[in-house]
Amino acid sequence: MNADIPIKQRGKKTSLFRRKEILPYLMVSPYLIFVLVFVLFPVLFCLFLTFHKWNIIGPMHFIGADNYTRLFHDRLFWKAIGNTLKFLLLHIPLQLVVSLFLAYLLNQKIRGIPFFRGAFFLPVIVSGVVITILWWQLLGYDTGLINRLLTSVGIPKVGWLVNPDVAIYSIALMATWKNVGLYVILFLVGLQTVPPQYYEAAKLEGATRWQQFHHITLPMINPTIFMVVILSTIGGFSLFIEPYIMTGGGPMNQTISAVLYIYKQAFQFYNMGYSATLGFFYAIMIMTVVVLQKKLIEKEE
User: Fold this and answer.
1) How would residue 144 be classed by pLDDT, with cut points 50, 70 and 90?
2) What local confidence, expressed as pLDDT, does residue 99 receive?
3) Do 75 and 8 sit in the same domain of this protein?
4) What is the three-class DSSP state of 53?
5) Is residue 59 part of a domain?
């Protein structure tokens, strides 16, 4: 059969076949280059740095596993991990409950609902630095608006950012306010995917609103809940801007987060090798927590 096909036609078919083989690789090549340059190379370079001592200016020195030994004996790093976990213990449940409650309200048929949806989402699109400075002005001890209002009605001032026992929780409240709009939108999308006939059938059976919410709404939006928990966890572990601007990690290192500590090691003390070690270890820890969360939620399902 091939002998009957002219040589020119066979050459055209072969070249066309080769083009079809190469085309998919050409289409994905920009993404592959992006992954190689901005993902794979930084990860491998970070891993390489963990075995070296480097201050950016001078040459690198191979020190083996000394950075890892230092990590496990670094009390301030583990304190930063503890501060981050304290933040998460308040931030994640509060984020989940508040955003779901607001999404449930915004899912009702009331006047001006587009305005309220936009208002709740507005802090998400505003710069985190701007939001943090705004809250820093609100929570100031002497000049903060909230303390002024408290003293005007005879209530003593609260050290929102200067009290070691309160500061990290004040930051958690502020971060929840800033990010809640994003999760409200996610929950709102999840609520609108629940078939309305389920609620109609439940009403005919005499189910109360709480029973409808517990037995219909929550199971149906479980994937959204899982997404919100994961995103809140990753966002909480990335806590940086708020303590960096509002407290600088104080008072008494009670608000220094893990990311802020890694940043200080890199750009304040120029311990690039040790900072890379902290970052690499911290990334593995976050991944472990997220995987455990996923398994726990799937088990609950």
Assistant:
1) confident
2) 93
3) no
4) strand
5) no
CATH number at residue 81: 1.10.3720.10
Confidence of residue 1 (pLDDT cuts 50, 70, 90): very low
CA dist 232 → 50, 99, 136, 288 (Å): 28, 11, 22, 15
Quote the CA–CA distance of 142 and 161 in Å, as a whole number: 11
* Joined tokens for residue 140: 């100031």
According to DSSP, residue 214 is labeled I
Question: Which one-letter amino acid corresponds to residue 147?
Answer: N
43 shares a domain with 163: no
Where residue 33 falls among pLDDT bands split at 50, 70, 90? very high
Give the CA count within 13 Å in the CB-facing half-sphere of 131: 18
Q: Which residue has the tokens 């890199």?
A: 266
Does any domain span residue 293?
Answer: yes
At residue 58, the pLDDT reads 85
Query: Is residue 58, in this structure, part of any structural domain at all?
Result: no
Q: How confident is the model at residue 173 (pLDDT cuts 50, 70, 90)?
A: very high
The C-alpha atoms of residue 225 and residue 261 are separated, in whole angstroms, by 30
CA distances from 254 to 97, 141, 174 (A): 26, 17, 16
Report percent pLDDT > 90 for the chain: 44
Phi, psi at 253, each rounded to 5°: 60, 25
C-alpha closest to that of 249 among 237, 231, 262: 262
Q: How far is CA 159 from the centre of its chain?
A: 27
pTM of the model: 0.84
Domain extent at residue 190: 71-300
Asked if residue 254 and residue 186 are part of one domain, the reply reads yes
Among the listed residues 281, 251, 293, 267, the one whose alpha carbon sits nearest the alpha carbon of residue 88: 293
Q: How far apart are CA 188 and CA 197, in angstroms?
A: 18
Tokens of 200: 């109609």
What pLDDT score does 13 carry? 52
* Residue 15 resides in a domain: yes
